[in-house]
Amino acid sequence: MEQIKLSKKEFDLFKAYIYEHIGISLSDQKIYLVQARLAKRVKQLSLDNFSEYYTLLVNDTTGVELEYLSSLISTNVTSFFREGKQWEFWKNNLSAMMEKKNNKLRIWSAACSTGEEPYSIAMFLAENAPTMDVKILATDVSPRVLKLASLGTYNEKSVATLGATYLSKYFIKGKNEKGHHFTINEQLKKSILFRGFNLVTGNYNLFKEKKFDIIFCRNVMIYFDKPTQAALVEKFYHMLHKDGYLFIGSSEALTDMKTGFKSRSASIYQKV
Ligand SMILES: C[S@@+](CC[C@H](N)C(=O)[O-])C[C@H]1O[C@@H](n2cnc3c(N)ncnc32)[C@H](O)[C@@H]1O
Is the pLDDT of residue 100 over 80? Predict the structure, then answer.
């Protein structure tokens, strides 16, 4: 079947829509990528061309199509204990970080994808600070990944890097026709609240009363342009307690940004 073509005019419409609603800024070179990714959806919906899809998208008030679009444009790739050096840093600095915290830790995993990040945080703290009162807010723009995250069921490949102790302590093993699967136990799930939140267009007033000790925002800012990144980092700064930490992805940095954060280690910043 012949591939339908995305015209430059159509690309510009999607580009503006994606920037406004998801915060991802696409360069003009991405026209072929967008064509390839959206063509599948156009076909699936039995539409004739990209303009019809654009009309459907802008008229969809349920947000379902926007979520679908964002899953086509960005990636949900994640893993347990991703960015190994950050966990080492946290372990080495944990006692100092816990001081003056009144035995309470409030953490936000912003862009949590399918849940491996917030569950890693919960397991890490259950191991290293078991008496701490821990609450983790885990958010993402995509309802699809959030649903998987709250189910907390992973295949053997996803949990392969976790040791046997972690598997027996924090997971329940099951089996179906596809093989073994591992589900996070209820005790660990209890410390995490999963919610939908768009980091770019979301209403930050919802957080007015909330302050965090640590914010994880890893491997998502890379999709945003500099002004969007800077605006987001500024918001994070205000949402952290004094001395709080911001963990970002290892391919991201706050260089060239005027912020009150001090760099503490690669991709780890502290509000001073
Ligand atoms: C590559 S994953 C990163 C997951 C995890 N933080 C990690 O580092 O492993 C990027 C996630 O960002 C989410 N995302 C993309 N744009 C977003 C936005 N504007 N607001 C909130 N989440 C967004 C995607 O749905 C995806 O789950």
Answer: no
84-271 folds as Rossmann fold (3.40.50)
CATH number, domain 8-73: 1.10.155.10
Pocket test for ligand 1, best of 80, 108, 140, 247 (most atoms within 8 A of CB): 140
Q: How many residues does the chain have?
A: 272
As a whole number of angstroms, the distance between CA 79 and CA 158 comes to: 7
pTM (predicted TM-score) = 0.90
Structure tokens at 245: 């930490």
Whether residue 140 lies in the annotated active site: yes
Give the nearest ligand 1 atom to 82 CA: 9
| Residue 113 CA to ligand 1 centre (angstroms) | 6
| Annotation says 218 is catalytic | no
Burial of 95 (C-beta count, 10 Å sphere; 0-12/13-18/19+):
exposed
The predicted-structure confidence for 147-178, as pLDDT tens digits, reads as follows: 999 999 999 999 999 999 999 999 999 998 88
Between CA 111 and CA 17 the distance in angstroms is 20
Domain chopping of the chain, boundaries: 8-73, 84-271
